[in-house]
Design brief:
seven-stranded mixed β-sheet, alpha+beta, Nucleoside Triphosphate Pyrophosphohydrolase, DNA-binding
DNA sequence: CATCATATACTCAATCTGAGTATATTGAGG
DNA sequence: CCTCAATATACTCAGATTGAGTATATGATG
């Protein structure tokens, strides 16, 4: 595909159609698939990152990207699995569609002549160890891109030190701005998203938080995209590593989705080896969700829900009493309508 | 993806990456938007349906459809609101992206040479009475298309009379078929999806049920698309009214999404007038979800969660004691991370 | 063998939930 | 005006679930 010639051709053809068509006719666009491929390695949640050329703002990291060609693949998912395998060597297990991103840039520019690329984001989960020899790309911790999401060692310092003062500043600049499309004030949005002033931290609001930082001009992507809010900062702290295009937004969507999903679907086991101890399971859940869980209750919950069954074996050398090994109990899918790890944060 | 420059870069860089992948064609496709516009009128959940020319199989009903032109609209949602207003006169309130449907074969034409159309499904909610003079289209009960989903008068007879025997027949034809992509037998899938043999009915599995009926060749769309399974039936009962293209699948997705969503987001109020009694609220929830709810507990739940507040007025002529009027309490959005109508089925 | 570290088991109060019964207010019919 | 039917609203209570402990089991270490 895609010799440069062909690409030009397709761009030209897109243009032609657009030029001939009256307003409001179907315009041809190109479809790309982006995959947020997630695993947990050594209790660290990671995503498969491709390092490309640095963009205008110096961002080099991106998500795997591939084209979708309806001639070649019957469905998006088949296409996705195909080029992910070809590009990186990773065989995807679970995959689900996340969201289709099609904004014509956040800086609407009428002079835009290139072909429009719509990208369909996918979330894929895979077991870490099975795919460590990558043909291309590397596994990077996702907290690298979202340091404020990592609550495993308590509330991240960056929240208090950087994010809170900046966002409060930004919010106060337009304190009373309440429009009909945005019925909540900036202050309230900031409070809810980031759990300031005693509001609770909702680990699922990953995208909302990222978009708020973007709006406030606090992430590098905002400056790159020429958002006005980004210009108002004298010196802007780097909040997480930026990514190319809107890939960080896609990754944020993916993280939010996994965090929500493990609570009502047993997708956590896609990230685990076939046999594991309950504590390993807990650590994996914690890697995804952030906060610590109450160990005894976690065990009660997981066993009580019939999500796992003991294999009969034990794991020695745990540093203490040996731990029973468990496996995912598939039958749970046939028993409960929404089996998942319904965890509540706790201590220890 | 932002300035035109960057956008061009995006295509080029995509091309570079893809050059490493196996050959395929980056074909241009066209993007359409489909909207499942949902309201509740007289305790009946309805969707806005456009009646078009009858297709190969005689289906005339379809969802509103409009093209997406990146030149004209900055985002999908802006485009959607625009042409929905133009086509039908309806002003959309809440709208969210559902899913992007791109399977080849959507067009139901095997020798398909035209441009491939990818359609992005949207769910929109609106208050019924505000939009009853439609420029085009009509409000049809969604149970018209999915009669087996309507549990408001108990278990729908069609399940026992038609669906259960047919699906059991279909499942037994390939009883032991368990592939790696489909780790559950047909029998088990049928049992879980439709709640046979004492399995519970999960009202959210609307799409799964529809797809199972499609696979089994029991809905008209399957015959139209030339599925083999559809040919095995001597006479095929009509299970619900068919729709054009894959619109019934999109509608099924929408119904499943609303049913799930009202449990953790207060979207139910998008369907209500600004003032209502608690019983009216309950009837609306029941219209969406199906089963009856326990009245006293529903009240306790909704009030206890702070979702509503009394206006101080009452509604007379309820047929009994006057009912207090309530309104949605917006502040709940600022208080709870996931405010919704967390209903449990019950009696009375 | 004592001690540490971890795994696993059990306990208990507070809360939530399902399912009632009881009471309040209207309109309709005599 | 009184009674009754119909609906709205209030209160009760037992059982399940949850949050947060304490207690015990068992291998590793020196």
């Amino acid at each position: 595909m895609n010799s440069p010639t062909e690409l030009r051709r397709s761009a030209v053809s897109a243009n032609r159609i657009v030029a001939l068509a009256p307003r409001s006719e179907l315009a041809s666009v190109e479809i790309g698939l982006n995959a947020a491929i997630v695993a947990v390695a050594n209790n660290e949640p990671v995503a498969l990152i491709i390092r490309g050329e640095s963009d205008v703002a110096g961002a080099t990291d991106g998500l795997p990207f591939g084209p979708f060609s309806p001639r070649e693949h019957r469905t998006f998912e088949i296409g996705l699995r195909d080029w992910v395998r070809a590009q990186t060597g990773v065989e995807l297990g679970y995959a689900e569609q996340l969201y289709t991103f099609g904004d014509r840039g956040r800086s609407a520019d009428p002079g835009d002549v290139g072909p429009h690329v719509v990208s369909i984001g996918y979330l894929a989960l895979t077991e870490a160890n099975s795919s460590f020899e990558l043909a291309r790309g590397s596994w990077n911790s996702w907290y690298h891109y979202f340091p404020w999401e990592d609550w495993r060692k308590g509330r991240p310092g960056i929240l208090e030190a950087v994010i809170e003062p900046r966002l409060r500043d930004w919010a106060s600049r337009l304190a009373m701005h309440v429009s009909s499309t945005q019925p909540v004030s900036r202050q309230e949005r900031v409070r809810i998203c980031f759990g300031f002033d005693g509001a609770s931290w909702d680990e699922e609001k990953v995208l909302e938080r990222f978009e708020l930082l973007y709006e406030a001009g606090l992430v590098d992507e905002a400056a790159r995209d020429g958002r006005d809010s980004a210009k108002t900062w004298q010196e802007r702290p780097q909040l997480g590593t930026p990514m190319q295009f809107d890939h960080r937004r896609i990754l944020a969507t993916a993280i939010g989705r996994v965090r929500a999903k493990i609570k009502y679907r047993p997708v956590i086991f896609e990230l685990m080896p076939s046999e594991f101890t309950l504590y390993e399971l807990q650590r994996t859940v914690e890697a995804i969700l952030g906060p610590h869980l109450h160990k005894q209750n976690f065990r009660r919950l997981v066993e009580g829900a019939g999500l796992v069954e003991p294999t009969g074996e034990v794991r020695m050398r745990t540093g203490g009493r040996p731990a029973k090994l468990f496996r995912f109990r598939r039958e749970v899918l046939l028993e409960r309508p929404a089996p998942g790890v319904r965890v509540k944060p706790g201590k220890s």
